[in-house]
Amino acid sequence: MRNLNVNTGEVPASITERCLRWNGRRHGYRPAGEPLDTKRYSVEPLDQSRAKAFVLEHHYSRSYPAARFRAGMFEHRAFNKPQLVGVAVFSVPMTQSLVPKYLGTPPAKGVELGRFVLDQSVPGNGESWALARAFRLVRAALDIDGIVSFCDPVARYDQAGHEVKRSHTGVIYRSHNAQHAGRTLPRTLLLMPNGLSVSDRTLSKIRNGEQGYDYAVRQLLDAGASSRCLAEEPRDWIARLRREGFLRPLRHPGNLAFIWKWA
Fold first, then answer.
1. What are the φ/ψ torsions at residue 83 (nearest 5 degrees)?
2. Which of 15, 26, 136, 154 maximizes the CB count within 10 A of its CB?
3. pLDDT tens, 87-122?
4. Any residues with CB less than 8 A from the CB of 182 and at least 6 apart, and which?
5. How is domain 15-186+254-261 classified at the architecture level of CATH?
6. For 215, how many CA atoms within 13 A lie in the half-sphere containing its CB?
7. Residue 125 to residues 191, 216, 231: CA-CA distances in angstroms?
């Protein structure tokens, strides 16, 4: 397979022939040409606990955004309870400026498609079908003018060289009539040994002792970081983790931005 051009967002043709799927934070693929028996599936509003549990179990990021609305894709089989096989989370963007910047509307009038995960059991072409129905539900539930989403085109690798996150280029969003709206600003990420990045917000909570400090610290410790030394200031601890190589920098060209706007 040809490599993605992360600077232009060019999508190799071979990528469009496969549909990304998830199972226990591990990715897999289904052929894009697989038929989807839509009579076996439905998309319905989903409660917070089920949506969060599904996303945390399957999504590589091991994180869940601040949701405003959630939709679940269910598979229906005779003599069995409906099985949750996919989740779309419409969330509050990381910063208030993103909705005005990309949608040209006040922050509350837009949401981000913060997570979209389908189980590996869902046949190819399930994404577009599920997204269309999830969009109808969120538009009926929230007074919004549009949706924004971001794709990270840079793969991640752990310290052993194993790929832990595939590059994402918005193939599904493009097929669902999204408008490519450029990309976010370049930045430097800090990666832990497991290949996952630590958000600027998480580090800010630690450096400044803000609300959520304990949880932010636990994220680093659970990933193998050495504990703070006695009398070591939080910002000095972060600096030491960088010097020790626990937090390694990765220059990132910026995420690809996509929008759907109907107002």
1. -105, 130
2. 15
3. 999 999 988 899 999 999 999 999 999 999 988 888
4. 256, 257
5. 3-Layer(aba) Sandwich (3.40)
6. 7
7. 33, 37, 55
Residues 6+ apart with CB under 8 A from 201: 94
Six token digits for residue 153: 């085109």
pLDDT digits (tens, 9 = 90+) for 23-50: 655 666 666 677 888 999 999 999 999 9
Angle of CA points 223, 197, 157, to nearest 5°: 85
Q: Which residues of 152-180 are buried (b: 16+ CB within 10 A; e: fewer)?
A: bbbebeeeeeeebbbbbbbbbbbebebee
The SS3 assignment for 133 reads helix
Burial group, residue 229, by CB count within 10 angstroms (0-12, 13-18, 19+) = exposed
In the chain, where are the structural domains located? 15-186+254-261, 193-246
Q: How far apart are CA 191 and CA 196, in angstroms?
A: 5
